[in-house]
Design a protein that fits this description.
By secondary structure, the chain is an alpha/beta fold. Helices cover about 30% and strands about 30% of the residues. It has a domain of about 90 residues: ATPase, nucleotide binding domain (Nucleotidyltransferase, domain 5), CATH 3.30.420. The strands form 4 sheets. The protein has a 5-stranded mixed sheet with strand order 10-9-8-11-12, sandwiched between helices. The N and C termini lie close together (about 10 Å).
């Protein structure tokens, strides 16, 4: 989906268009699963964008990697932060993580934090696509982080599950005390609404949560099909988070319009 937004103090959608991604299911399972969506972006962007505009890419959780960094108060610089995150990614994912671009959330190292990573080759390809279309690639944001920041005011006051569904995948996070305390991606089929309570129960067991520590609410967001305000709860203890849009950041230049690609 490509979205053009406008406004500084209040961001509004000026134009939106959904594009179908044609791809091979087998190829989509490989290490470069993003090639088919990127090809669609390269075709669509030149006719959707206006030259010189700013491009913000919100990257599907299919193409993003996450880890929870344990608290390490001894860290004293962004360079140490990055080194710690890179080391932890390599421990979890192996040497493949050496070719990833890593970012750490801005929280203090005195608390657990989420780190995200994407393939260097994907970032390079996005930069080429933006350059060829005559736009500026201003930022690339993992979907989880964009969504959590947009809904933070709603989630910060609660201990709850935060589930982001995309076709084929659901990303489950534990929100508590104003932060994320676990992140896990799970395969999800067409019956994801039925499967979700079971996935949340499994996640609680993996996190060794018991009794009152187990969240009784889950906030669910489906980016390509916003739930209506009259939607029924998605099972016992589940309440849909009915926010139709994620507010995208815009630049400080009044003439710039931000755009987003959400891979679905």
């Amino acid at each position: 989906m490509l979205v053009r937004t406008q406004g500084l103090l209040r961001t509004e959608v000026a134009a939106a268009e959904v594009f179908t991604v044609a791809g091979d299911d087998k190829a989509a399972e490989g290490s470069r699963a993003w090639e088919a969506p990127l090809a669609t972006l390269r075709t669509a962007l030149p006719r959707f964008a206006r030259r010189g505009e700013a491009l913000t890419v919100v990257l599907s959780n299919h193409y993003s990697h996450y880890i929870l960094l344990p608290a390490l108060p001894s860290l004293s610089s962004s360079e140490e932060d990055d080194a710690y995150a890179r080391h932890t990614f390599r421990e979890v994912y192996g040497e493949a993580a050496s070719a990833w671009t890593v970012r750490v959330s801005g929280d203090s190292p005195k608390v657990a934090r989420v780190a995200s990573a994407i393939e260097d080759s994907l970032l390079d390809a996005l930069q080429r696509a933006a350059r060829d279309a005559g736009v500026r690639l201003e930022s690339v944001q993992p979907f989880l982080m964009t969504a959590y920041n947009a809904f933070h005011s709603e989630l910060a006051r609660r201990t709850a599950w935060f589930a982001l569904y995309e076709p084929g995948r659901v990303c489950i996070s534990l929100c508590s005390r104003g932060g994320l305390h676990s992140v896990r991606g799970c395969p999800a089929g067409d019956a994801w609404r039925t499967e979700l309570p079971l996935l949340l129960d499994r996640e609680a067991r993996l996190q060794e949560l018991e009794g009152e520590a187990v969240p009784t609410q889950a906030f669910v967001f489906h980016p390509s099909q916003a739930l209506p305000s009259t939607a029924r709860p998605l099972g016992d203890g589940l309440a849909p988070l009915t926010l139709a849009e994620i507010a995208l950041p815009v630049t400080s230049h009044a003439q710039d319009l931000a755009m987003a690609l959400v891979g679905i």
